[in-house]
Design brief:
28% of the residues lie in helices and 17% in strands. It has 2 domains: 136 residues, 3-Layer(aba) Sandwich (Oxidized Rhodanese, domain 1); 121 residues, Oxidized Rhodanese, domain 1, CATH 3.40.250.10. The longest helix has 12 residues. The chain is of the alpha/beta class. It has a 5-stranded parallel sheet. It starts with a strand and ends in a 10-residue tail after the last helix. Strand 8, helix 5 and strand 9 form a beta-alpha-beta unit. It is globular and about 50 Å long. The protein has 11 helices and 14 strands.
């Protein structure tokens, strides 16, 4: 199973007893509401048939000022078992977009849960993100329901894959390491230092990092990924798809970076890690330099 699947592919799998469909929606940066809001209320009124809901906002570990950090290993696996996930399950995760009112498309919340599922040891070839999420599914006239399933508890026994998470020390070492690509997934204006995003007035990006905006990889109207040839062109000449290089993605607090990593994996790059602390750590908890 590809790590990003189309609505057509998912529709053909509905009813498969090994399929576990997970709604991972979080609403982010609502100009008329909360900065972060769980998607559980929306799930109660509409979701894909058979989907269960995972409340990432409630379950994420949080150490100020970083709002999202991985749930403890045993707790996370127990939570996944509650959703009915077994070692042989095929898990497809979806969301309702990157942020409220955005003029771009990206399934970063689904990607965040997919990343942690892989980080905790679940086989990556059994995890997929729904391309375009709930919005694309609904726009195509596909079924939604308010019926909430009651899954049988699953059983999991995995070990963490620590190589999928980059910590501060690894990123500091990567700044001067030509075998590692640091990939900033934030808007170019933020990367360039045109405005501060984290750390009061500190602007810019981690030294040596290159930039590909995570919201530039999908059609903003349909939510579908850009054609593969166009995606490859975006990364052309950056060295990001070089199988001999390790790529570390980062963003503000470890969500958008997961979507960028998911698209890179879709394109065949397997030497990937995500810097979970991202700029929330680099710019607010250290004196490390930022470049503009």
């Amino acid at each position: 199973m590809k790590n990003i699947v189309s609505t057509e592919e998912l529709a053909s799998q509905l009813g498969d007893p090994k399929l576990v469909l997970v709604d991972a929606t979080v609403f982010f940066n609502d100009p008329e509401g909360e900065f972060l809001r769980s998607g559980k209320d929306q799930y109660a009124t509409k979701h894909l048939p058979g989907a269960v809901f995972y409340d990432q906002l409630a379950e994420a570990a949080s150490h100020e000022p970083i709002p999202f950090q991985p749930t403890g290993h045993e707790r996370f696996l127990s939570n996944m078992e509650d959703l009915g996930i077994n070692a042989d399950s095929q898990v497809v995760i979806y969301d309702s977009g990157a942020q409220v009112g955005a003029d771009f498309a990206a399934n970063m919340w689904a990607a965040r849960l997919a990343w942690q599922l892989a980080y905790e040891g679940f086989p990556e070839d059994q995890i997929a993100i729904l391309e375009g999420g709930l919005d694309k599914w609904a726009s195509e006239g596909r079924p939604l329901t308010a019926e909430i399933p009651e899954p049988s508890r699953g059983q999991l026994n995995f070990s963490r894959r620590e190589e999928l998470l980059a910590d501060l020390a690894e990123v500091e070492a990567a700044v001067d390491d030509p075998s590692v690509v640091l990939l900033d997934s934030l808007p170019k204006a933020q990367y360039d230092g045109d405005f501060a995003g984290f750390g009061d007035d500190r602007v810019g990006h981690i030294p040596s990092a290159i930039n590909v905006f995570f919201g530039s990889l999908s059609d903003p109207e349909t939510g579908a990924l850009l054609p593969e040839k166009d995606l490859r062109q975006i990364f052309a000449d950056l060295g990001v798809l070089d199988p001999n290089k390790r790529v570390i993605t980062y963003c503000g607090f470890g969500i958008a970076a997961c979507w960028l990593a998911a698209v890179l994996k879709y394109l065949g790059q397997d030497q990937l890690a995500m810097y979970d602390g991202s700029l929330m750590e680099w710019a607010t908890q250290t004196d490390n330099e930022l470049e503009v």
